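JOB MANIFEST
job_type = single_chain_structure
chain_count = 1
residues = 251
[input]
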Amino acid sequence: MTTSETTLCVDIGATSLKACCVNGDGLIVSSLVRRKTQAPVSPRNLLGLIDSASRKLEGFSQVAIGFPGAVRDGRVISPDNLARVDGPGSEFDGLIRNEWDGFALGREVEKKLGKPTRVANDADVAALGCSRGRGCELTVTLGTGIGTGLVRDGQLQPHREFSDDLRQGQISFDELIGEKTRKSLTTHEFNQRVIDVLHQLDKEVEFDACYLVGGNAPRLSRDRLSVFEGRCWIMKEPVGLTGGIKLFSPS
């Protein structure tokens, strides 16, 4: 199985799901289909949204999914913000969180759509889409919450939720620069908080390049990012979708 196939790429977020077809060259060859994913989202509801989006697209022979939580071998380890009552920082819906525990998302999508399916964390998919294959490359997604994916010399590294592991006091990165908080900040304040977070991430992984993606990335000032001496890039490409084809690339 290679990237010569056309892939249905699905990028799942806490507020919306996006899907399109991507060819083996990483080019989007279909319209972009969107569906709302208002938290909390159960496995059954998400399967329905993926199925609905796929029916608007055709010509794909495999499926790649970026999931906003921890995933291993196609199974959900943690649904993260999808199972929260009101997004990042809010409490979990206990019943829905339990439904997600160990849920075989890859297998269930494969059964429903009848196509080979691979699933990875959404920030990891974006990291694959950004990677140029050299050195330590960190991708940071800035949207409803914050996500991170790390690639070293072209190889995706085991996923780590820096947004949970690294904190400023008792405040997680999601709570510090997630969308809910951003709305209460000035542009200057938001930029400064992101830069503070990037400094902390740089100390942790010593990145050679850092790619900033997601809905809030365009809010960042390139001038303010110059403190990282050309190592930080604001990405405009939909790497959370196009990176999905690399889930089928030979390792």
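[summary]
Residues 111 and 117 are 9 Å apart (CA to CA).
The mean pLDDT is 93.
exit_status = 0
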